[in-house]
Amino acid sequence: MYEKITIPTIRFEGAESQNPLAFHYYDAEREILGKPMKDHLKFAMSWWHTLCAGGTDMFGRATFDKSFGAVPDTMEHAKAKVDVGFAFMEKLRIPYFCFHDMDLVPESDDINETNARLDEISDYILEKMQKTGIKCLWGTANMFSNPRYMNGAGSTNSAEVYTFAAAQIKKALDLTVKFGGEGYVFWGGREGYETLLNTDVKFEQENIARLMRMAVEYGRSIGFTGDFYIEPKPKEPMKHQYDFDAATAIGFLRQYGLDKDFKLNIEANHATLAGHTFQHELRISAINGMLGSIDANQGDLLLGWDTDEFPCNVYDATMCMYEVLKAGGFVHGGLNFDAKSRRPSNTMEDLVQSYILGMDTFALGLIKAAALIEDGRLDRFVEARYASFKTGIGAKIIRGETTLQELSDYACAKKKPEAPSSGRQEYLQAVVNSVLFGEG
Ligand code: XUL
Ligand code: CO
Asked: What is the average pLDDT value for the chain, to the nearest integer?
């Protein structure tokens, strides 16, 4: 048991508190729209950023020592990460975690040895889960770090490599089920291309779909009842990734008959990389019945890559929770902090502070989103905006009872249409500000 780090217990102290190691908005039991905050938000700790990433980038080595007193890349280290991770989640009252297989143990050259290590560590994790009541939100397989995946996993040109991807998915599903995980994620980090000159896009996409189909069949056969997710991202590390955005991923899932088992895991920073807002990706997912889970982070609009920052933007968090509430809340999903402290924020206290920031930002987002819904002005405006489809010719169109000829006759008889109503965007933006910031 690794006991050298001390993580303070973080309690709710309210907005007035100046204690940096306290929640200012996240009050787990506070009821919002009839449900405690913690059930709306379902926060999760990301194993990889929190317990593995030390701030390495292509210009420099790690700044945050995450050896936790053990020799790196040993099973002793793997266990130390479990100890620290569970202490961290307990002290911050984070009810879930998310993991990649390779976050948990050092990878061996022999997949059988890696699997044996995964068996050992998952027993250890399960014990901690039972002791603490902390649960698994979702699992996934890392099919992008090992050099064998340089040409992709499901999209690889090598049938041999494809079998290793399958083996990893099988094991990651075994672990997810062992932990009672609610979801299983496919993030296609290497599923794309660098150049079309060497790529058979149709072949690769069909092979990805085959792998996903086999994963669904296997998962269901071992009792996985949760959701599978695709996590869209347009680029990075590949020049182009097939799961470009929500609309693309939904089209793919429908084309290959995977839409009954899959939903989407939407990440804020991936949305902006695709040239969309976070809210846009959530809305597209929701209206297609595909809003599954969320990787809560934020990007930097001045940078063209995935910075995975802890979210501090209350406006975006509000619009996110607005979409989640409107969609009826999470079923198997939740808010996973796929986020890392900035490289110079290299202490345990920074990490605690980062999660406080993220959790408070989304708690505030939830409070404000509920207030927007209760205020009702946005809903009323949208409802009224389409009023012309409620009666007369509009209602007939909606009932599917018109022909093009009939509509043409109608228009020609009218000679010119009544002017459409104003979109009143600026009024609506002011409404949002007034709900967010009050009377001042
Ligand atoms: C990478 C990313 C991943 C997935 C899980 O951009 O978001 O961490 O969330 O593989
Ligand atoms: Co992510």
From this structure: 97
